[in-house]
Known about the structure:
Layout: H1 5-18, H2 21-31, E1 39-47, H3 54-57, H4 59-63, E2 66-74, E3 79-86, E4 94-100, H5 107-118, H6 142-151, H7 153-161, E5 165-171, H8 181-190, E6 210-214, E7 219-224, E8 227-232, E9 235-241, H9 255-261, H10 267-272
Parallel strand pairs: 1-4, 5-9
Antiparallel strand pairs: 1-5, 2-3, 3-4, 6-9, 7-8
Helix pairs in contact: 6-7
This protein binds 2-oxoadipic acid (OOG) and nickel (II) ion.
Cofactor: Fe(2+)
EC number: 1.13.11.93
GO molecular function, one term: dioxygenase activity
Amino acid sequence: MKMDKDQLLNKLWEQYADITPSAKKIHELLENRGEQIFNDHIAIRTFNDKRVAIDVLEKPFLNVGYEAKGEYNFESKKLYAKHYEHATDKDAPRIFISELELEKCSAELQATVQNVLDNCDQNVFNDPELVLSGSVWNGNSQAIYKSLLEESEYAAWMYVYGFRANHFTINTNALKEFKTLEELNNFLEESGWKLNASGGKIKGTPEQLLEQSSTLADLYLVNFEEGAVEIPSCYYEFALRYPMANGELYQGFVASSADKIFESTDVKLQEAK
Ligand code: OOG
Ligand code: NI
């Protein structure tokens, strides 16, 4: 079935909300206060193996009218990312796709990821719905999860959760009641949510034209062959954009902020909370 933009984005939301009950609750909490929720962006993760790299995962978005815009590098995390904007629908969320640069990782991690990909039915990589397919390799070995986690939290998360929206992001500019990110953060914390405090609860500054905050990822019970264990799944993000000199809102991302936002799925932050 050929999906249109709204079908694709709705499916990504449903699949994300399934393992991220916090997102559904925060969404409802704001709607119940009379807010209408618009999404600033949706993020997706992958490995740079040519079978599943950004070039593959971007396709369903290009097919429904998205265009590639900014590029970002995260040296210490060995990640590269691109963002996409819809050509005509200015209310459509941006798409942010990142990939782990395998050649920069240890030989052991490379071999593990290679093995995981080699052991899949190779047809899944040509499925136009790959981006909605989760861990197509049945990522259910806790031993593999742990070995990846030692080197890259991102790789370990990918192994368990695979291809899906890693987070949705509320467009804070479109909220009526909350004029600053701090007000929204305070409201969320008073309502019982824990925010990612890595690098401060608010990432970015008005001068950088983008401020962001995020919840800590929900914990989700994963059935490993060794037994069930709770692993951080997905998180909800909040973005406030500032106007550029020409009066239009900044459309891109800020690498130094994104670097900290990635950590919202990190078990270490969960333990610190
Ligand atoms: C993406 C983190 C970066 C942003 O808005 O800067 C990001 C991820 O966790 O996969 O979404
Ligand atoms: Ni984000």
